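Structure, all two chains, one model.
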Amino acid sequence: MAGQLSIAKALNEALRKSLENDPKTLLMGEDIGKLGGVFRITDGLQKDFGEDRVIDSPLAESGIMGTAIGLALRGYRPVVEIQFDGFVYPAFDQIVSQLAKMHARALGHVKMPVTVRIPYAGGIGAVEHHSESHEAYFAHTAGLRVVTPSNAHDAHWMLRQAIESDDPVIFLEPKRRYWDKGEVGAAADLGLHDARIVRPGTDATLIAYGPMVKVCLEAAAAAEEDGRRLEVVDLRSLSPVDFTTLEESVKRTGRAVVVHEAPVFLGMGAELAARLTERCFYHLEAPVLRVGGYYAPYPPSRVEEAFLPDLDRVLDAVDRALAY
Amino acid sequence: MTVKSTARARKKAAPAVPDTLRATGTDAQPELVQLLTPEGERVEHPDYPLTTTPEELRSLYRDLVLVRRFDGEATALQRQGELGLWASLLGQEAAQVGSGRAMRTGDYAFPTYREHGVAWCRDVDPLNLLGMFRGVNHGGWDPNEKNFHLYTIVIGAQTLHATGYAMGITKDGADDAVIAYFGDGASSQGDVNEAFTFASVYNAPVVFFCQNNQWAISEPTTTQTKIPLYRRASGFGFPGVRVDGNDVLACLAVTRWALDHARSGNGPVLIEAFTYRMGAHTTSDDPTRYRLAEETEAWKAKDPILRLRTLLEKEGLADEEFFAAVDAESEQLGLRVREGVRSMPDPDPTLIFDHVYSEPHALVDEERAEYVEYAASFEAGENH
């Protein structure tokens, strides 16, 4: 896997390795066979592993999730692809009421090693229901683990770690970054639930995950031209959250701005701001600020740029934080 | 001609609907498979032959009586405040015991929350079933110990788990089959229809066992369907059979056939067990608000236990000693259930944090530690 891989290819290689390593691993989803998925993440896998292990499913999201639960009960390790973020809602009961709770309801007697891959969030000019950021619903549900990579290395290794986990993992793939390339290292260098400081700095901490990490790195580069050194933390895991890394960063910089695409109201940023305020109150020079989507349905694509946080909105929030 | 009269004329001209298509979910005849009449007569069915020894018939009778006793005891315990809720199976004993006894050891059952009789046949300790209703857990037992999955409350969700499990059996090349239980109300759910699709296209060895007990809480079967439920199967490409759900022998024969059909690689089967819920949906329900006493009375005459007892007596297959022994066993079971429930300990509150995940999760660990410290602060206070 030496050299530069796109996130899409890094995910494809992760699925291939997982299928090779464990005969109980299965892929299920719509159009994942011959087509290789609408984003081609499963490209070539059915050809190499057969229709019994890379399964084209009927067009029924609840059916895909519910049967994956049954396969897990039989000892399989299903990796489910939901074709687009907005299509996961028909499977919501199977995920939050069945998958998330089965282990607890059985008092630990059964495990639910199911990975749910969802291409999520916006920025690709798609039509309605193809750009949702629903991470808060899943992170709010105990029993699920929720993670999202922002680069090719993490995409590869976090997916492999997710598949190896005996707990259900919601694996959110930032679809607008699928074609971004990066180096994929030879081994995972962090646990699945560790945050990563992707750019060190001293003046304020930008906290982001998935598609917004790149925006924050660009913002930090721009801020440096004005002499501001911003630290950028890639959260990577939304349940659980690595508060240790966040807390250390914010205590050093004294300021934090959380950036995500989902609406700010009751989003991940609300939780992060509240906890960081509780833990770092005497270290904070400014309230923890949030930058995100508005409290409106995801807009038509011609105006999505107004909805999505960009470099300027992030820098504006940094200005506000530094003005305190 | 006015618009109104045109509409009338059109209605008149509509072609007659054949009687077979007119039948609704509440019309039992003529499709019903029956091997034991309400009068206790054995009848033959060409497609579902069943030979039974006297010992087997006595054993089925014992199952029916004990299951009804357990259920009655649980209803009483709810009335006494020992259980928060109970979903009685009264009237459905034959459907559950017949189908349950048709299963082999390696077969797997996925119940709703009313399959106490199936649990009995799977040798699940009846007290295990009461934990959820008493409020000490949300399920509790190890589903893989007796191949009996946890009760599922969201209607129809378990039919997909059953189908997925059956798909796994096919992948394993195993000689097992699965039964998915659900009710007439559940037949309207998307999940049940998705389960039919998945099972059909993947040829999964799953038997869908619908207990049509005529009522989904207050809604009659006619609110769920305009055709007999078993006929839904044909649209999905697999066989459907309607069986007398108050006839333990017919339920046994048809389910045994269906399981063999499924395990032989022929794909799923839908069985509609035509039966009746004699009591309330749960102990929170009041059926006098929505159904007539005459209807319940009419079904009483089809009682599953009475008809088997009539057969045993008429054919001289069981004597007074046998019936007395079953009654004595029933008393013992009642006592065991009463005492078992009353002595069931409340769980330690830290159960809240147990088994949320199978691997450590930082937030759960943190909140557990907070709770333990908080709880300990009260104990420390008591010492002063």
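Chain A touches chain B through 46 residues (CB under 8 Å).
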